[in-house]
Amino acid sequence: MMRFLLLFSRQGKLRLQKWFTPLPERERKKIVRDMTTLVLARKPRTCNFLHWKDLKIVYKRYASLYFCCALEEQENELLALEILHRYVELLDKYFGNVCELDIIFNFEKAYFILDEFLMGGEVQETSKQSIANSIEASDMLQETMEEYMSKPAF
Amino acid sequence: MKEIMVRAIYCEMLGYEASFSYIHAIKLAQQGSAIEKRVGYLAVSLFLNESHDLLLLLVNTVLKDLQSTNLIEVCMALTVVSQLFPKDMIPAILPLVEEKLTNPKEIIRRKAVLALHKFYLIAPNQVQHIHSKFRKALCDKDPGVMTASLHIYLQLIKNPDSYKDLTGSFVAILRQVVGGKLPVDFNYHNVPAPWLQIQLLRILSLLGKDDQSTSELMYEVLDESLRRAEMNHNITYAILYECVKAIYTIYPKSELLEKAAKCIGNFVVSPKINLKYLGLKALTYVVQQDASLALQHQMTIIECLDHSDSIIKRETLEVLFRITNVKNVAVIVEKMLDFLKNVFMEPDILFLLYVGCFPLLSDTYSPNNEWFIQTMNVVFSLGGELMHPDIPNNFLRLLAQGFGSEEEEQQQLRVFAVDSYLTLLESDTAHLPQRFLQVISWALGEFSYLKDGLEPCKVTKLLAKLLDERNVTSESRSWILSAMAKLSAGPGAAALALQVSERYSSSLDTVLRQQALELLHLSQDPELHARFFHLWHVQVDSSLSFLDSFVSEALSQGAAPYKAPHQRQEELRQEKALSLEPYSISLPVSLSSCSITDRQSPTLLSMSSSLSGNSNELKAGSSTLKLEGVKRVWGKEGYLHQQDAVEEAAQVEEAATPALPLSPQQGGAESQQTHGDLTVVEQEKQKLASSLFVGLGSQNSTFLMGKSDSTSQQFRRKTRAADSTSSGVSERSSSSSHSSCSDFLHNNLLEDSQNSLNTQKIGVSNGTHEGPVTQSFQTTSKETSPFLDAGMVLVQPCSPQTELRDFVQPGSSGITQTSLRSQFPPELSQLPHSDISLLSSDHSLSLSACRAYRDDALLFVIILSNCSQSSTNGLSVQLDCKHIFETFSTLIQVEPHTQVTVAGSVSYRAVPGHTQTLQFTDKLFLTDFIRPLTLSTEEYGKLWLSFSQDVRQNLKLIQGEGDPLRATLSALKEQLQLHIVDIIGSEGIVACRLLPDSPCLLHCRIHGGSLAVWLRSPLLSLPDCLLYYCQKTLEEC
User: Fold this and answer.
1) Which BP terms from GO are recorded (chain A) (predicted)?
2) CB B35 to CB A145 under 8 A?
3) Is the CB of residue A99 less than 8 Å away from at least one CB of chain B?
4) Residue B710 Cα distances to B284, B288, B293, B831, angstroms
């Protein structure tokens, strides 16, 4: 099971956080701090895996963003790497050539995509197409509702 | 509002407090339109914690949305439920989520399954009743739902027994997936549904673990996945890795193992660093079962050791650590220390290191004490304050108790320690970490007397110097002071101690001041000193048995019995869950059903049932597990390959020549050899390799053999552990009964009277166990019985009676079993008795014995028969049995034995003036002294609480038709004469007593296919012994 997923920039600014197990606020902040320092300190051409307490940290850099997730002991690191990659693919498909700014300005969308992809720390849906479909379905609803709401009330 | 909420989320993410917006988030989720609801739910799931109070306000919203007809709303509700939901609220929404499992939309089914998975993780008891629905989800026509259900199964199958029947379906699914039968959009980089594959592989490895028949089902499909996953992409490597792991977890098959080993090879030599990492990881996993596999990759491992990435280095060390054995331990530990010095402090590596060399020393006959102490010194000074506190503690315990080796060696170890510490203290001490100082001072305080010619005064002086060091913390100071207190008895030391204590008795630290004053008093009064340190070996009654009477008194006055904390929690949880029912008014939950569950208040029975012996499992933490993996390797090697090692060393000496002749077992190195010219660096590497891989797996053993070898070894170890208690006891008993057989019972029992057929003259003795034998005659008044004036030997030490009846029947030659039986005294034949067995015989006399079970005693009947035609004279029987007679009431009650030996001899005169003796031995088992104890359930409950000794164990269940518990218990009853007090549901209580009147209570419960037995008795080892017989009985059934 994945414990948490963090997205942060090269400067260590958090862009997205998702916790799959309940943690107190203080603990979360500490973990975020630890992760950014640990991951940012890694030199290029080292492996993408780290150990942190009893968790395995898998991270990958896409452009200026670091995607970093924590796994439990028995999980497969390579697979987690692919989960991150699949998430990036999904974002890419949704935003069309995704960049950091997309995520900054539409981070709630990024959360919604993540919610469709992972649920409770496990992969929910691996089919790219069906995720896109469900996101689109809720977005459609959103648009129509927005239109509906923006209509003048008689 | 939506925009504002999004801004608030962003603020919170950047680390600014936005708690004012929490309530608005909930409101938004509750009242907003669909789009606002979505943002509201997102905000709630990001802001709130599972224990947050505001979350209660969300429950109703979730309930409403779950019942909504809008697909999107239901999806949102399910998402938030799986993200965060208060544990005690689960019952409220569970029926609704369950209902969603049959929803026509696959996305809702999928989410519902994942929500249930989440529920299972946080509260497994509450979803127990829907396991059958999971099976339905597994057979769902939509692959997405099926994938989701696998998450649940992966959790469930941690306890695999009840899911073995699903193996076939999992294998079928995997075969379909591998065969590419799934829709194309499940493909990922042209690999069909990799996540699904990996999940299935994991499940299969759990199912096939230690189970040959199940494993056989999956060999084929595993082979196929190995074959199919040949593309060069990360995801295929992930599948391969899982495959290899599965192959090494399930019951081994040689071809697959070969392929898997080749796969690992590809990983390790890969230039991609992530794959290298994974390969090392796989190696760590594999070498636990087959150390020789590391040989093939030794050069790679050596290269990895110098890798620039410290993570890779760490993994390499982990591999090395697992192949540690007697010969390479020094090299490996040196490498690890290098790593520590150069890179950064990592406490867990230190711990590994410690765990690495610690069992080595205890395992092999302590190859080098000096080396051990010195290594530990380095570890302590390097580790500093970061070190795990267990390390110094364990080390001190090791010093204090030794590791079971010779006393002499322990002393040697201690002297070494004292020596090295003294040298350390004499040099500069400023850089030593505090933990190390504490260890030093303790060791000096305890053991410095062992070193000849060392004045305590000198040690005290050194310690005093240390005490004045500025950077020493007050905690270390108090360690030093207590060490000085131990040493202060010596003549010179007293004065110094006085000086020190005066200085510190005005210290601001109260602990230090107290210790200084103690030191003062102890050093001034040698008598007090001696008495004080003598007192240290006080025995502690850990079972708190002195409170038993208090407890039973309190119970009889109506106090509630003690419940273990976790049980209380469980009850509390149940109550809580129930009290929350009103929240779900909309749900069709009948009140009566909850009141029934409420009634299930803990009876005595359920109280006693809950604690199953988990403590052992708990103790086996990760470190000990690793330790075990290592031991297996060492245990196998050791002495045997010493010669190889010498040879290799010799070959390394010759390394001047470019082509290094290596012994055949270094298969991996041979490829290097073909390269021809080796650089100096490579030579060094090879040297290192040969020293690292020394003693690893003999050259001839293929890895398959290594594997099966290790499993069998494991098995052996297990059985040994199981036997250890019983065999230990029986050995003890037999040895003590052999030694010093007292002539306690020395009576002239029989005098032959002429040729009459049924004549007996019997001496009756009535001995008490402490005094000399007093003889008295007691004649039974049964005139009618064939043995008219049959006397009885009533040996009555306390109360287990042994009646000796002997009668001689000259003239009846060729005795058969039946004829013996016919001569069996009728009053005994009514009692249950064992078969008459012939103990010994010679040409004129044969001796048989039989045990008859009276309700209050065991009758040991010796039957002598005269098989010759002539008469015998001057018969005397002598019995030696220390345990039964002398000590039955005292010793056995302290330590019951599973069996005792009765030995004896009969002497007689066949020819006048010529005495012959006939030796015999027989065994009496504990079961002979066990009688049923008739009790009512209430009495049982009372008794149960008043006993302190308890033992728990899982036993085999007898599988037959009908209730397995009933069948098992009645089998035990038959064989061991137990009394079944009551059977309620899956629990049964059984009682018995050891003669004369030591009760033993058994509480049995069906627990996951085995019988969890919990025994209690006032006697120390009675439960142990009884358990042994229970085990034996059930195994024979």
Assistant:
1) intracellular protein transport
2) yes
3) no
4) 16, 9, 13, 52
